[in-house]
Amino acid sequence: MERILVTAIDAVLDEAGLTNEAVRSYVKHWAQHTGAERVEVVNASDDARLIAEALEAGELLPAGKGRYYSRSHPKDTARSEERTVVATHDAADRGEYNNWRPASEMRPMLEERMAGKSAGKTMYVVPYVMAPPGSPLQPYATGVELTDTRTVVLHMIRMARVGVEYVNELADPEYFVRGVHVTGDLDNLGQGTAEDQRYFVTIADERTILHYGSSYGGNALLGKIAHGLRQATYDGWASGKFLAEQFLLLGITDKETGRTYHICGGMPSASGKTNLAMILAPDALGDRYQVHFYGDDIAWLWVDPEDGRVYAINPEFGAFGVAKDTNEATNPTAVEAISEGTGTIFTNVAYNEQTQDVWWEGKSKTPPADVTGWRDWKGELISERSEAAKDEPWAHPNSRFTTTLANIPNIAPDYTNPKGVPVDAIIFGGRTRDREPLIRAITDLAEGVYDGLTLGAEATFAAEGTEGVLRYDPMSMRPFMAYSEGRYAEHWMKIIGAAKDQPIFAHVNWFQRGDDGRFLWPGYRDNLRPLLWLMQLRNGEVTGRQTPVGIVPTKEELQLEGMENLRADDLETLLSIDTHRWQQEMGHREQHLSLFRDMPEEIWAAHRRVSDALDAEAK
């Protein structure tokens, strides 16, 4: 195998102005190990040139003015949790869900897979930071991704702040996350078989990320999930300084009082997280309230010792959103953020090679009637589909759009604030058809953390004959915790407990259904209303009604202007607690928590308090 000369790499790094010797050494090692033909250092200012190169190479296609379309390999369309591993040198980091393996086993395995696999390719060096520059958390946010795929670079430029200055200016030149992404031969990796060659490994205590066998999404954009969640979760715990969570972050300004509130929180997939993050005030309340977007996927939380408040930053620079069902009704904010001229990249949606239009299920009620020129996510002409295939989706269910935060029309004016914003509330919410009311507030720290640890959503359980049983997703972090769940709960108690002015917790549910199957709450923009009640509760302006599982609003306390079509009996159900169903749920929760070793006694005590209160209510 012919190796690129070290002198040639030095010349490239010199020309790029990359002066950090630790980064230079790391680049040289991996360029030689993977057999890359050449090395190129990337800054955000290279975007237009790289776009032009990708268009010329056919890696991207134009999707109207200033928008682009890409199609992944058909076997490479989503994250693969069973191939995603957290590795460390300490077996005590093994969790119930983190797929832990010894670093001593995983590093050589990945090194062997990657050897020579970038032959003939360019190795792109992408220095980045996953935080607003100047943030107190910036030391944990700096990384370098090495990738052999140009489209990955273009996504990284949209999702992270990219430039050599971030690594040149490190206080400790050695302290950066080392990420290596090698695509591999996607035709012959045995995806989903016993011979599957793919591995996506975060060696957390070495701050090293090694991903092999994909060029799609979180498998390849190492700043996003691997660094922004898995590595950051570990760093936050190891340093004792912060939490890294799969959380949305939004701001609500009361124009009457001039006060802005900030809410963050976690929701499992298909529970409305992105739509809530990008919410606009309902028309009837728009004159008084303005909602601002900060982030839809990741938040890092820390406590400022000066004022004793919890602060949150969105470490990302962009949004990597699911296209399916995104339209003017469900998420007008996202529609505007991905309009022409935004530089958005669409992946695995349907594409019209004649008109350069894109389409996905839910973009409109029905697909385009004229199928001329339309190709599905696999690149196959819709017009040539067989009768058996005519009803198959045009877009992949996990098709995506990638756009920068600056394109989001209601982006918060202070979204680049290095300190972040003070957090008034932490909410959780999973899709459940009964039991969970519209909102219930929790004022006790341990009970709030307990509620997050027992977060769940309905998945396909009804089809499996266990209707009403949830798939638990603690804090919506089930696949992302880099250490054991018991220690994770303890760390939550420590970080939030250090705040003198703690956020209020709450659990929300927009998905209650009636006996006839219809949704009782209209959702979308109206979801702001229970959040406004929560802020009033925190301020002492309303008192709500105490229940065994938290405080719920009285119907008089909710701002329901413009909701004349909401039925009185539906509202009563939305604000009620089904004690019997909750008692059933407590048994499931006990089994779930029992999976985790070293769960703090405060969490078990919170479980017992809620369970005892339900039993007393039922008598």
Verbal overview:
There is one protein chain. Helices cover 27% and strands 21% of the residues. The radius of gyration is 24 Å and the shape is globular. The protein has 16 helices and 31 strands. By secondary structure, the chain is an alpha/beta fold. α11 (445-453) runs antiparallel to α12 (485-497). The strands form seven sheets. Strands 1, 4, 5, 6, 7, 8, 9, 10 and 11 form a nine-stranded mixed sheet that branches. A six-stranded mixed sheet has the order 15-13-14-25-29-26, sandwiched between helices. Strands 2-3-19-23-18 form a five-stranded mixed sheet, with helices on one face. The protein folds into three domains: 1-47 and 83-239, 3-Layer(aba) Sandwich (Phosphoenolpyruvate Carboxykinase, domain 1), CATH 3.40.449.10; 244-314 and 415-618, Phosphoenolpyruvate Carboxykinase, domain 3, CATH 3.90.228; 319-409, Phosphoenolpyruvate Carboxykinase, domain 2 (Beta Complex). Residues 460-466 have low confidence and may be disordered. Belongs to the phosphoenolpyruvate carboxykinase [GTP] family. It comes from Blastococcus aggregatus. Keywords: Cytoplasm, Decarboxylase, Gluconeogenesis, GTP-binding, Kinase, Lyase, Manganese, Metal-binding, Nucleotide-binding, Pyruvate, Transferase.
